[in-house]
User: Fold these one by one.
Assistant:
Number 1:
Amino acid sequence: MSTESRAQTVLAALPSVRPWQEDFYRDLHSHPELSHHETRTARRTSDRLRQAGFEVHEGIGGAGVVGILRNGDGPTVLLRADMDALPVKEATGLPYASTATDEAGTPVMHACGHDVHVACLVGAAQLLADAHDEWSGTLVALVQPAEETGDGARGMLDDGLASVIPHPDVALAQHVLPFPSGRVATRSGPTLSAADNLRITLHGRGAHGSMPQAAVDPVIIAASAVLRLQTVVSRELAPGEPAVLTVGSVQAGTKSNVIPDSATLLLNMRTYSDATRTAMLDAIRRIVTAEGEAARAPQPPDIEAFERFPLTSNDPAVTARVAEAFTAFFGDRAGELPRQSASEDFGDVPNALGVPYTYWGIGGIDPGVYAAAERAGRVNEDIPVNHSATFGPVLQPTLDTGTQALVVAALAWL
Ligand code: ZN
Ligand code: ZN
């Protein structure tokens, strides 16, 4: 039978899942947990997967959860959801809005919609487990902590993920995004940017503010480096090659009449190809080193990387297979995803395991509200985006669509 007709059969039971799935979602939404603190979410998710008949492994790389359902011969499909929230004070006004704070009193909110991802995954897991006669193979449900800090996927790998799960043939993931609910969108090739964050310490030699001849002024090195760094994208990359280099923080000194010993820059960089990423990292090193030398710096700068996100580049064959299955199932509600400037660490797991993957978007905005904003030419002003305090995906058809998308995509292999 075709993927589409088997998907229809499996998803015919969606109305029986919907009531508990919506409760599950509202519960996660009102109990968000920050990166590396997702213990409650992990426990609730594990319980659900175990109830659906999955073999469950908990505590992988922190709160990471893996559920495995072996259902005869066939391919192994990995479905991934992330589960952490953000330090944002919720302002959606929803009846199930979060009032949670962390231990330090910082407000916490599911402002990126990772609660949608987990709810859709447990719903899809239940439906596929119930309809095991319709498919064969192995299903792996991976629920990852700490996506927002960029180290959750690597944490699971470092903690032995590869020895816990059977080797997947394909890895699939999705994200709720600010476009109309009910729609799904795929993209082949580079889809989310790679992100690199650098802390650069520029060394000088401190002295009294009245005696510059005794100093090597790191403030001048920093000022000159910040300007020169702006030429990396504008003068070293081809026009049309998308990339961003932002110096988000410049810090040096404490007092007007003290020349400090050092200055610190924080850089954020976004790229869509490995070649561009390498070229930009080389250019940054070259420029800050040369600015130091020009100023007689006593030692070369220290460059420290933190919060790195890999490029999310969707495998063309895998993406084509998912896109075809989506078009058959969703009709004109399936479309193309524009390239996103945001970043994700989903790719770390399939990259480490040598598995092809694709990552698609599902809409989370009320279609009527979105259409009105479009008509008024006010999409940027009126439609809340991920990470904002008013980003509250409509419950339906968002959960239905995300659940359907996971089932349809998985069945394209199973
Ligand atoms: Zn996010
Ligand atoms: Zn996210």
Note: The domain at 3-192+311-411 is CATH 3.40.630.10 (Aminopeptidase).
Number 2:
Amino acid sequence: MGCSSFDNVITNPMSTTAQPSPDRGLKTRIQPLSAFSDNYIWLISNGETAVVVDPGDAVPVLDALDRFNLRLTAILLTHHHPDHVGGVQRLVDASGATVYGPATENLPVCDTAMKGGARFEDSALGIDLTVIDVPGHTAGHIAYAGSVGGTPAVFCGDTLFAAGCGRVFEGTPGQMTKSLSALAVLPPETRVFCAHEYTLSNMRWAREVEPANTELQQWQAEAIRQRDQGEPTVPSRIGQELACNPFMRTAVPSVVKSASQWAQRKLDTPVEVFAALREWKNSFR
Ligand code: ZN
Ligand code: FE
């Protein structure tokens, strides 16, 4: 199956089209593959080859490879949780793909250990990503930031979600605050490819934190429409997160005030604000 039939096959509204990859003239696409109840496995492909991020389940990936006649060349992992790595062994057995993953975590398979500053490049797919260490959700969590098919992108696993962030399971609030800051300085147009569809519940809570945030109100209306139509709400963009995500706004006066009221004490630092927001969100129903 060549490039043109690949273009015809994809009618999935969930696909994101990026610029053509420079050296092959094939269009790079980034698609979410749904897994479990709310996971997204990201598939980057060009009609011939594919790279997959956080395949918690092999089945949706094998189905997509088969359907679009793609050869899987690499698997990128952000952290060790089973809903992100559960499909790796079966995909390696089926494809021989090379596995890249966080250097300090226990993974079922890992060929190349990645830590902050390491790069992953794939010229056929127009991928040029650099690893950022983002500990907090897990102790060795990494993100992959850079460009895919000529557009800025970050694959951040369970660190940053649309209007939310991952729970702090293994790290500290201080680490998570620093990790989110490292993502906050990416170009605002950077598309945020997170690993879960948590957006609507994150937004219901974010509205409590910042009831007067009009950009959040507008984004929420858009996200509700997308979910009603069965579409994913992601990728978001870093600029949207900076404007709407309370966890990215721990220095914004309205967020500091709201978090202080919830905690019933004056919060003085971004880390204190983050910790209060995280507790607030954990208990929010
Ligand atoms: Zn996780
Ligand atoms: Fe997860």
Note: The chain is about 35% helix and 25% strand.
